[in-house]
């Protein structure tokens, strides 16, 4: 985003909209159940308990199944940053020997390894600012044992000490800079380029001046693709009214965040598990339960087998409201301070087609749309330029040049793409 610093430099962080990813580190999950566990996924726990003693289950199969229902990203954290991400959903939990990232399963590497990757990227990109939202499960307002069950204050503070060590000289110092007053240019010149919103702020950081309270993240959740009509309505409502919400939040350094993430609904997990592990299950019955649960008119004979399949189907519909908000800028629509979602693709796009980044071609899909995607990052970057230019951040010539460049990138890979696929849940006229 430093490429547009010429116009956004006089804006504060809370005047911008940052492209983010949900569960940013799940590309690197192991097959080890996290000490954070799967307590938040009761249906998955029930299904896995049912099949865990089956003689038909090969060792490691259940753990791999969990990983398929937990992975939301296919790109490394360095690749995500390279492709425009500036808001990182950094989940972490104390395991037996150290802190690891998690989403049901713990990561292959320790959390500090991913922090060092982010530090290396910031060192290589001296004009960039990155926001880290640190928590166990995306609940910035949780404190104490609710935030990090069974983890002592000493262990929390020891890990925070590692965070401060990794980002030494780059962290926002809240005694000097305020995200609602300090401009981007000032943050960069002061070396305040790593902004951390930390859940369980008092216990986790010791009320450190190098972090903001995670409770200041105004996280607006919405429905997922299993209730897409409600999801569409809530996204339209938020984008149409984001300007007023951001003004209110900015007064107290709150960051307005919108989740456009997906999750594996219980009915999908159960159906896929029965088809995978129960040799007597009726595939037709399980697929019908699954497709009925999603309620998408064009999803008729396929149950998404992985969370990434669900995410890409969700991204197909998220592109509609993202493009609507971008094109209604002159009517007062705005994006929140950050969005986080799944299935990031190269060039900062989100994949809306049917083929997974590491997957094989699906049977009977629409061939020309297998790899379709939407210009997520450039849409938010373009919005930031529009906002900055409206606020007097650049002369007319500079603004036009930047917008032409960004619009060229948006169109080069295709903007919004809709097609009819009666098997894999893509529709040209639903929900609108």
Structural class: alpha/beta
Unreliable segments of 5+ consecutive residues: none
Mean pLDDT: 94
Order of helices and strands: HEEHHHEEEEHEHHHEHEEHEHHHEEEHH
Rg (CA only): 21 Å
Q: What is the overall silhouette? A: globular
Largest sheet: 8 strands, parallel
Helical proportion, percent range? 40-55%
Provide the spatial order of strands within the biggest beta sheet.
9-8-7-3-1-12-11-10
| Beta strand count | 14
Q: What's the tally of helices?
A: 15
Report the end-to-end length measured between terminal Cα atoms: 32 Å
The proportion of strand residues reads: 5-15%
Pfam family, one: PI-PLC_X
GO molecular function: phosphoric diester hydrolase activity
Organism: Triparma retinervis
Protein name: PLC-like phosphodiesterase
Task: Walk me through this protein's architecture.
The protein is an alpha/beta fold and 432 residues long. It has helices at 5-8, 42-51, 61-70, 77-82, 111-124, 144-147, 153-166, 184-190, 201-205, 228-250, 266-277, 283-294, 307-327, 376-390, 396-412, and strands at residues 18-21, 29-33, 87-91, 93-94, 99-103, 105-110, 130-135, 194-198, 212-213, 217-220, 255-259, 338-341, 350-351, 373-374. Helix content is 40%, strand content 13%. The strands form three sheets. It has an eight-stranded parallel beta sheet with strand order 9-8-7-3-1-12-11-10. A hairpin with a 4-residue loop joins strand 4 and strand 5. Helix 2 runs parallel beside helix 11, helix 10 (228-250) packs across helix 13 and helix 11 packs antiparallel against helix 12. The longest helix has 23 residues, at 228-250. It is globular, with a radius of gyration of 21 Å.
